[in-house]
Each structure stands twice: as C-alpha cells, then as structure tokens.
C-alpha cells in the first residue's frame, strides 16, 4: 500500500529543527511565562513538544 500524504517522521524532524533555536533562546526566568494558550505556560509547552 502506498503512503498517502506527508511522511510524519519528516514532518516531525522539520518541526524540531525549527523549534530548537526558539527553545535555545529561552532563559530560566521565562519558563513560567504565559503563552497564547491559557492552559500552557512556557515550561509546559516545551515539555509537551519534547515528549511528543
């Protein structure tokens, strides 16, 4: 059976490459900061992205 749509591994790898510089620019004092989604702070959003 042929794969339909984008390769999910390639999509994830591309997203990770874009996310790494953003995460690298965050200092410890920003981890408790808010995000556009009220359910997440910066630390929670980073942890979520790493665990995915």
In summary, what is this structure?
The protein is mainly alpha-helical and 52 residues long. It is 52% helix and 0% strand. The protein is built from 2 helices and no strands.
Would you mind describing this structure in some detail?
The chain starts with 7 loop residues before the first helix and ends with a helix. The model has no long low-confidence stretch (mean pLDDT 91). The chain has two helices and no strands. With 52 residues, it is mainly alpha-helical. Helices cover 52% and strands 0% of the residues.
Q: Give the N-to-C terminal Cα separation.
A: 26 Å
* Total of helices: 2
Instruction: Pick out the low-confidence regions.
Output: none
Q: Structural class of the secondary elements?
A: mainly alpha
The shape, in one word, is elongated
Q: Sheet bearing the most strands, described?
A: none
Q: How many β-strand runs? A: 0
Radius of gyration: 14 Å
Element pattern in H and E: HH
Q: Please give the share of residues in helix.
A: 40-55%
Q: Which range does the strand content fall in?
A: under 5%
Mean pLDDT equals 91
Layout: helices, strands, pairs:
Layout: H1 8-24, H2 42-51
Give the tags.
mainly alpha, 52 residues, single chain
């Amino acid at each position: 059976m042929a794969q339909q749509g984008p390769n999910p591994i390639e999509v994830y790898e591309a997203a990770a490459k874009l996310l790494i510089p953003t995460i690298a620019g965050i200092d410890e004092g920003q981890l408790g900061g808010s995000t556009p989604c009220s359910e997440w702070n910066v630390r929670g959003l980073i942890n979520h992205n790493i665990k995915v």
